[in-house]
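From the shared-data thread, chain only:
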Amino acid sequence: MAEEDPKADVLEEEASETTDDAGGDASTDDDEQSEVNKLKEEIEIAVEDVGTLRKKLTITVPRDSIDRRLNEQYDELSTDAVVPGFRKGRAPRRLIEKRFGHDVGDQVCTQLVSQAYMAATEKEALKTLGDPMIWITPKADAGDAEPGDKLVPVQEAFEVIELPDDGPFTLVCEVEVRPEFDLPVLEGIPVERPKITIGEDDVTEQIDRIRSTRGSWEPVEDGPIEADDLVVVDLKMTVDGETITETENAQVAARPQVVENVILEKLGEALISKQVGDVCTTEGQIAEDDAREKLRGKKASFELTVQDIKRLSLPPLDEAFLTSMGFETEEELRKLFREQLEARLDQTLQSGMRNQVQRYLLDNTKLELPEQLSMRQTDRAVTRRMLELQSQGVPKEEIDKHLDEMKTQTSEQVADELKLQFIMDAAAEDAEVEVTEEDLNNEIAVMARQYNVRFDRIRDELAKGDGLSNLYIRIRDTKILDDLIEDAKITEIDGPDKTAEADKSKDAGKKTKAEKKTKKKATKKATSKSDDADAT
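Structure, as tokens:
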């Protein structure tokens, strides 16, 4: 029902948890499949194309199937239920229904949604991607600002869906399906391996990453907004002249971002150079899978009133910083970081060759993609990229910047990310690749060391969402790519003169604002010491 990975399926988890909570024995895999097989014969299914690689399923479960399940649950309860005034197992059926009817109904409904969906996708031979989105009708007393049917995630749907008192049960959902395609020739892929040495700019970049983890967001008293500043704004979103949301003191970064499920590619351009009190506007298109159906695909306008500006300030590379890192001089620090970078050079080169293999696969595989790439598809690609950056020890602030950029990529870039996911999934079907628990734990341990936090904290964070399943896929893909590199046709080439490039960059004065600020402090301090020495 989900992607072919170890990801715990939301529907199956919900059904299992509900069974356990109701006091019944957990269903075995055989029992589950048996129920699904029965439903294949009983349900009616209508399949409708609602876009490229997107299907709308209308699944109708007959009343007999519902009553059979309810009766089975009540029969189990009747032997163990405790009802005041009656001995255990002696209470009349009508009293058991009255006392436990709501819980039993919820349990059967949850199981039925899961199993009916699985039965429908198996019967129609649909290769689905992830969990479905389910159409619901919000309750009248829910105070919903937008009446009418809504397309929502599975977990949200479980809070609303109920079994009918009589008649059949109908489930309407939408699901994305896998494309069908042929892989290109995977032997002898042309790959170049550059000869690269570690330059001073690489060492400086690594040191600045560490400094950024100790940086602080400082209020900007005067002056305009600069790129990547953190900006506090009062935000108003309108569509066709109608106000959709108004938010006070919202925090946004001065760069492209997703706000209110809308990609704002020009948010940074709109904010940069503005000051406190200024008002700016920008616009973007609402996602095609937005929960607010009436707004899908429409253009949204945003008005932002700047209330406060904050800027990341890196700590100076002074004696206090060096001491906190366990060094006496900057030379010692740079020497260690250079050694670490050189030790990781092979990994860097291997990563570069993996990228070349991925580009070969993208350029030589023809497959159909959805007409409108959903936010869920983008989120999957973003999560995998986040794990890659975490394994490299990239600071959180820098990761946030990268993820903002990914979320606002062009459709072509997002399409490449999604296309590559499909290709790697197809390659995994033929590859003899195994990802063990030890592989997962080793990768998590690397992240823990990089960020100097406990192993279980990293694992718990990953377990909260799709982190573990995405980590599994990333490890799997890395193993597949490394196998392809072993069979590739590798040519060694001269690498770039990184030291010369760094010198050119310095001559051009291309420094970040945070670096300029700290360099100025360091220069001032050095000048003061020099003056004291001259006076002596």
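The chain is about 50% helix and 20% strand.
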